[in-house]
Design brief:
Keywords: ATP-binding, Ligase, Nucleotide-binding, Protein biosynthesis. This protein has about 475 residues and is α+β, with helices and mostly antiparallel strands. It is built from 15 helices and 16 strands. The chain has a nine-stranded mixed beta sheet with strand order 2-6-7-10-1-11-12-13-14. Strands 5-4-15 form a three-stranded antiparallel beta sheet, with no helix packed on it.
């Protein structure tokens, strides 16, 4: 029955910009900090204080606009959005309604081989509000204005998405573009990227949109996907029962996997927008736009194509590595230090990904230096250490960014290639494993692998496996 309906989705994505200071004052934007310690008369809305626009905010907004194929509004201005809420100290928010900084863009997404463009209606700059902290024990609400005045851009899409998969593909593409630009870290768990989902359903083939609802409080891609599926099913059920969908804002509870109404949109208060009297309009000259265009970094799609051509690494490797700006940086810097691209890729694809998964970390949290990874690869190349020891040393590099050469020396992990010492150990292993020797002589080649393993065990993993293999073959065939 559900297949007779089409889901129509548009997104409003709020992104906290990576400026050191707030949009209209010099207060710090650092995450955390004691409540109300990053505040001043401007961001706490004290009478007589005046906003001064942060130039870096404008540059980041334009950079995101250019990277998402938007037009830049060379005449743009700020507006006052009036509403009363305890976390909003001035009782208005400075935003952009009539002349946003960017408009009419779009990005290409690929879902299961199906490519489509999701259009971007506009990108506008605005200030964030403070944060309410509800103390249930004392039955009071406290307000922290540290976040008040932190610069945001809001990226408003057209209703071009038709499924949760398309929404996630759009968000992931957007997040990577913004991270590659350095405009934001886009950490959903810290609230530096937040998405509100506008969703409606309509019969397949219908021209007219259904009644939409807006879903808030979505702080992970999984929560967004679950919220979309739940809201789609809820609206279809209402329509099937002959009831009407109410246009409203709903809050998603990810633990209960349920949304509940916050406020009706039909009688949503008029924000009484008017031009911000304390900020002059912004005139953006052609040269400023050209300078930002020429400073745009290589984004993920171009990087991926270049990796395949220049480094000849498989598509799969290039896809995973460029999926995180941090990992791409480590890869390129390690290669620049002389390590073979495929060897660097192997360390990132196997050991790095394994440790990230085990420790439930994000690739953007990697903090070991490319220099130490390049040194480790060189130690294996020069046969100073074998692959088994290299994995052990890499775990220390991953955790504590140790300098591998000194670590190997201090812990006596260098590979033993001394033929006499190896031969003595191999003879002991042969004497202790008569069954495996008999199996080998009976033509079972796997037996030699077991004997190599036993020798490595006795040598605490430090033996040269090639030398061990050669000595074993020689002794067993005598």
């Amino acid at each position: 029955m559900m297949a007779q309906y089409e889901t129509v989705i548009g997104l409003e994505v709020h992104v906290e910009l990576a400026t050191k200071t707030k949009i209209f004052c010099g207060c710090s934007t650092a995450f955390g900090g004691a409540p109300n310690s990053h505040t001043c008369p401007v961001c706490t809305g004290l009478p007589g204080s005046l906003p001064v626009l942060n130039k870096q905010v404008v540059e980041y907004a334009m950079a995101v606009g250019l990277a998402t194929n938007c037009q830049i509004n060379q005449y743009c201005k700020f507006d006052r959005k009036n509403y009363f809420y305890p976390d909003n100290p001035q009782n208005y928010q400075i935003s952009q309604l009539y002349y946003p900084i960017c408009h009419d863009g779009g990005i290409k997404i690929d879902v299961n081989g199906q490519k489509k463009i999701v259009r971007i209606h506009e990108i506008h700059m605005e200030e964030d509000a403070g944060k309410l902290v509800h103390d249930e024990w004392e039955d009071v609400s406290l307000v922290d204005y540290n976040r008040s005045g932190v610069p945001l851009i809001e990226i408003v899409s057209e209703p071009d998405m038709r499924s949760a998969d398309e929404v996630i593909a759009y968000l992931e593409k957007l997040r990577l573009i913004i991270q590659y630009l350095g405009a934001s870290d886009c950490k959903l768990q810290e609230g530096s990227m937040r998405a509100d989902v506008n969703l409606s359903v309509r019969p397949v083939g219908a021209e007219k949109f259904g009644t939409r609802t807006e879903m808030k409080n979505l702080n992970s891609f999984k929560a967004i996907a679950r919220a979309i599926e739940s809201e789609r099913a809820r609206q279809i059920e209402l329509i099937e029962e002959g009831k009407s969908v109410v246009q409203e804002t709903r809050r998603w509870d990810d633990n209960k996997e349920y949304s509940y109404p916050m406020r009706s949109k039909e009688d949503a208060q008029d924000y009484r927008y008017f031009p911000e009297p304390d900020l002059p309009p912004l005139q953006i000259p052609d040269e400023w736009i050209e300078r930002l265009k020429s400073a745009q970094p290589e984004l993920r799609d171009e990087k991926m194509a270049r990796y395949k051509e220049e480094y000849e690494i498989p598509d799969y490797d290039a896809d995973i590595i460029t999926g995180s700006k941090r990992m791409a940086d480590i890869f390129e810097q390690t290669v620049a230090l002389g390590a073979a691209p495929k060897k660097v890729s192997n360390w990132l694809m196997t050991e790095t990904m394994r440790l990230l998964k085990e420790q439930m970390m994000d690739p953007d949290e990697l903090d070991f230096s490319p220099k130490h990874l390049a040194m480790l690869i060189a130690l294996v190349e020069k046969k100073t250490i074998n692959q088994t020891i290299a994995k052990e040393v890499f775990e220390k590099i991953f955790a504590d960014d140790i300098e591998p050469e000194s670590y190997v020396k201090e812990h006596g992990l260098g590979m033993v290639s001394d033929t006499d010492a190896l031969q003595k150990t191999v003879e002991e292993v042969i004497a202790a494993n008569p069954q495996s020797v008999a199996d080998y002589k009976a033509g079972k080649q796997k037996a030699i692998g077991f004997l190599v393993g036993q020798t490595m065990k006795v040598m605490k993993g430090k033996a040269n496996p090639t030398a061990v293999n050669e000595i074993l073959v020689k002794l067993l065939n005598e």
